[in-house]
Write the structure tokens for this entry.
Amino acid sequence: MDFTGKDIISIKDFSKTEIDHILKCAEKMIPFAKGEKTLTLLEGKILSSLFFEPSTRTRLSFESAMNRLSGRVIGFADPTATSQKKGETLADTIRMADAYSDIIVMRHPSEGAARLAADFADSPILNAGDGAGHHPTQCLLDLFTIFHEKKHIGKQNVVLLGDLKYGRTVHSLAYALSLYGSDLTFVSPKSLKMPREVINECKNLGATPTSTTKIEKALKNADVLYVTRIQKERFPDLEEYNRVVGTYQITMDLLKAVKKDLIIMHPLPRVTEIDPAVDQTNHAVYFKQAFNGVPIRMALLSLVSGVKL
């Protein structure tokens, strides 16, 4: 299966077979991601890391992945220190990065920015999140986490909780889980419901998602709980944000009635939506999930560079 030069823009660009291949390649990368073994697969290669929007896990895990592969990283995490401040267009920034490097990873606040960037670069573009649009590498590490913790992805009862309107992670994940035949329950405030187009896509793939505002009932038969932050930065109206922030919190009391093998995931950062006491339970896998970004991104960087894994 050849991924050489392929842009990673949306999870919708991949078949289930291709996703399975990426997950298998990531499995091979785990000892290298942990530093137990070393690799020189991308020695001499340069990654441009262009983050026009704040990031901790995605940016650092991409940089860690490139370093674990013996490649090098250039780029920025503060766009105000770049020529964008002088009025440079995104297209021109991408052209420059393309001239200086072999792979470009980009996060941008505007939906569709990654697809636009791909039009101006010969190097592969890896979308690290474009506004409320897509976050395909997060989706892949989420699938990888479910597989590792539950031994299979399909036929799971998955609850997606929180900001389902603006949350790019849940948009991508709902689509991917539908490919695998998982049962989906969407839990959110009424004003933050999963967009109708995402629900329709899930249905077109054979899923029959249900929606509710009540978390307690949804959790009774859940195998996976995927919690998201209410994202203040996505709200055009601050009053709307203030009305819904803090609507849900995963507490120890709430977990008394759940399955013993329920896993709780979160793309992070979290604010108040998960009580820190939950961190000490066997349910919490969100820090393992964050680590899984390294082997997944190692696999992707290698595959788009033409390395056969």
About this structure: The domain at 11-134+293-304 is CATH 3.40.50.1370 (Rossmann fold). The longest strand covers residues 46-51.
